[in-house]
Structure formats: structure tokens, C-alpha cells
Amino acid sequence: MPPSTPLFLSCEATFFNSLLMVDIERLGEHVGETVTVRGWVEATRGHGKVAFLVVRDGTGTLQTVLVKSQIEETIWDLHGSLSQESLVAVTGEVKEDARAPGGYELGVTALSLLSGADEYPIQAKEHGVDFLLDHRHLWLRSSLQRASLKVRAEVSQAIHDFFYGRGFTRIDTPILTGSIGEHAGTLFETGYFGETAYLAQTGQLYVEAACPAFQKVYCFGPTFRAEKSKTRRHLTEFWMIEPEVAFADSDDNMRLQEEFVSYLVERALENCADEFEVLERDTTALERIKTPFPRISYTEAVEQLNQKGSKTEWGQDLGAPDEAALMEDQDRPLFVYNYPKGAKAFYMKENPDDPRTVLCNDLLAPEGYGEIIGGSQREDDHDRLLARIREEGLPEEAYKWYLDLRRYGTFPHSGFGLGLERTVGWITGRHHIREMIPFPRLMNRLYP
Ligand code: 4AD
Ligand code: MG
After folding, report:
1. Is the C-beta atom of 440 inside 6 A of ligand 1?
2. Do 68 and 198 reside in the same domain of the chain?
């Protein structure tokens, strides 16, 4: 480890108190003043008489300039010895400079090392994905990762704002559950004082229970699926947003979805321009995301697919290649509605006009991102729901409470689940979902 100056010795604290500490994002308010920025070293460059030091403080990145003839030799030497990701304090005058990244530069007069760094494993070169994921705790500091996670944070905030603005009540649903939410095949089990508990695959059954209490509700939390697929769109732990609305039918449900998704895109466009630039995202594709979104029935989708040469038969669920084929000519998200009963979960309401199907929809994102939402009107008839639970071989005992909702003032209701990481993957235009969550959990990855 290189030597470093202790950070919070009392004399040190007094020293820092006499300086004007400024976050990089606020430098514009201090042009012409001498300020100090604390940050991590991203790069150092020297050209004999002039040297550059690029620091990142989490609010931005700043290029600082050292002129050898104008600073003490010890500062010049310290600059020469700095390793990547050392923590430094740089003092100097703020100058406006349109060519500098961020629009400002600092003319360095003082520099101190607050904390040194060992040789940093992530260099400005191509690294393999496994290597980067092994170093995810450090990889987070890289510009593309920061930009993606900033967009994620903006979208998360927009989600809460959207529902808050429409009078929804947020309901936090349990993570440890006794009933299977979706499919028996992808459950994480854990012991629970002599019983078996499952990590929640969905909060849906619980938001349904909250509807008669609050009418319009949503949950937003981590959900878990023991997916044995290593694809660009599967995580074993992902975040899902699940609104549920009393008195809403399947049509109302799709309208809410398109308004919701277009709002999220609009918010990202409004507040993430810098991030989109770093990500080199073609934002014209996002500007096209306006309601209404086109809709086709599952049956029409299968016909279209067969015309395109797909062998998918009526009754089968649509796979990723089918979704891609359906989206070939679409530049907005596409609803596919009313799938066959056998392809979907037990709680979906039978379609009265065609009982082979259920009142449900998937929403497919353009540009190859596939399904971002699954939603449905719920089966509100007690006996039909019980029959479906039995047909699926689910343990009846575990659904007693859920069936109660159909015994005490049953009501038409609908809801959906939007996968946060898939949605942010599409909005950022990044290829793989694993970069859309700070610490991805994948089939073969539990660390860091
Ligand atoms: O279609 P799904 O399985 O629907 C449900 O869980 C319903 N209970 C939702 C509801 O009606 N309240 O999942 C919903 C969404 C998918 O469209 C997808 O975006 C995301 O959750 N998702 C995943 N995201 C990442 N990794 C996985 N393994 C995912 N599985 C589903
Ligand atoms: Mg689905």
C-alpha cells in the first residue's frame, strides 16, 4: 500500500475546515474561486511541464491541471506517484472551459493523498465479463455502470411518483411466503422452523388482498426465481413493480400499463440526458414511445408467426425467438393478449368469449428486449379458482386465505408485474440485464 495521510486526525479536520469543499456537480457556482474537491483518481497524465489529474467524486468527473513551474515540487512528485483509485483532495481555482469534460477545470495549487490504492484490477482495456462480475464491487465505479444505475435510480423514483400521483397506496409484501406465487418449477426453498418457506416469486397474491382495503395498490420489491437459464434477460433475484386495481378489467389494465411505461421513458428522457450520452443510447427510439401501444391477440400472434415460418402451435407459450419475430416491424411496445390457459398461471380469469384462453397480456419491448410486463384480470369466482388450483396440483391448504378473497365480497380486479431490470435494460439500450442491478444474482453467481 502506498503511504497515505490519515483522513480524520484532528489537525487534518481543522485543515479541511478552512477549505471550501465543493462537489464536482456544483463547480459552476464557484468559477474564479479556489475550492477543494475530494475524489478518486481515474487517470493521471503528464507532459513534462504540464500534467493532468482526473478525479471522480460520485457527483461528476473533473479534469485538473498541474503546471510544474507554478506548484511545489512535492505536489508534482505526488501527482507522479498516484495510483488509480487513490483518494485525493485537490485544491485550485475553478475555470470555465468548454473543452473540458463537464465544462470546468481546476488549476491545481495543492494536492494531498487521503488514502492510497493498491494496483487497480480494472484497467482502461477490454476485460472478460466474468472478470468484471468477479470485481463487481469495483466495476460499479466505471462510467457505463454508473450511467446505467443512475437511469435505474431515476426509473425507480419515477415508478413511485407515477403511482403516488394517481392515488395508489404502496403495500410492502412478504419475501418469505408459504404459498407458491407463480410456478412450482422455479422456487427457492428454505427451512422455516420446521416448515418450508419460499422466497417470493411475486407479491401479487398479497396486493390482491390489499385491494378491498385500499382499492388501488402497488408493491415494489425483490422477487426470486431459481431460473436455470443463462440468458441476457434472466436474473435469479430481480425487482418487480406490481400494481393491482379493484374494478379494473383487462382493458383498463393494458391502458394503465401503456401510460405507466410511456411515463417511465419520458422521465428518463427528461432527467438522464448525460447518462444516455455516456451510454451512446439512440434516444430517438425512446422518443417514439407514446400511447397507445399496438395490441394483438395471442391467436393473431400465432398466425403471424406461422406466416413468418415459425413452427409454434396454438397452445404453446411464446418463446424469445417468437417475441423477436413479432417485434420485427414494431417501434413501440406491443401488447399480446389472451393467451391459452395452459400457458399461463392459475390465477388468471377465464375469457368468457373463448374459455380456452384467459384475460391476460404480456407487453413486449422493441429493439429485441422482449417481455417486460406480464399482467391479467384475476379469476374472481371462488369455484373456478379452486378448480384451477386443483388442476395445477397446487397445495389447496396454502391458498385457503387467497380463496377467502373470493368468499368475502369478491370483486373484478386486474394487475400486472413490470420487471425493473428488463425495463431499464431496454431504456439504456444495454445488452445484458446483469448490468442493470448493482449486484446481480445469476445461476452461477452469489459473490460479491
Ligand atoms: O410474467 P411474470 O412471471 O408475472 C408475475 O409474476 C405476475 N405475478 C405479475 C402480476 O401480475 N402481478 O413476471 C413479470 C415480469 C416479467 O414480464 C419480467 O419483466 C420480469 O417480471 N421477470 C424477470 N426479470 C428478470 N429475471 C427473471 N428471471 C424474470 N422473471 C420475470
Ligand atoms: Mg411472464
Report:
1. no
2. no
